[in-house]
Structure of RN213 ligase:
Amino acid sequence: FQYLKRFDLGCDLDVFRYAAHSVEGSPAECLQLFLLHCGIMDPSWAELRNFTWFLNIQLRDCESSVFCNPDFVQDTLKGF
C-alpha cells in the first residue's frame, strides 16, 4: 500500500524503504488502491490476495537487492 500510495503521488520510489509495522491510511483507502492497481475490473478476494502477495514479494526482493540500493548504484539506474 505504501509503495502504491507514493507511486500515485509521483514520489521517488528509489529512496523509499518500507518500515516494518508502520501504518498509513485507512483500510478503505488501502482496498481502493489495490482495486485500482490490480489490473482486473472486478477482482475476487483471492485475486486481490494474489496481487498483494506477488507485489509484496517483488518489493521485498527489490529492497534487499544490492542492485536496487541507491547508495550502491548511485545514479546509474535512476528510475529502473
The chain has one domain: 1-73. The helical segments are 2-9, 27-37, 45-64, 70-73. The two ends are 20 Å apart (CA to CA). The longest helix spans residues 45-64.
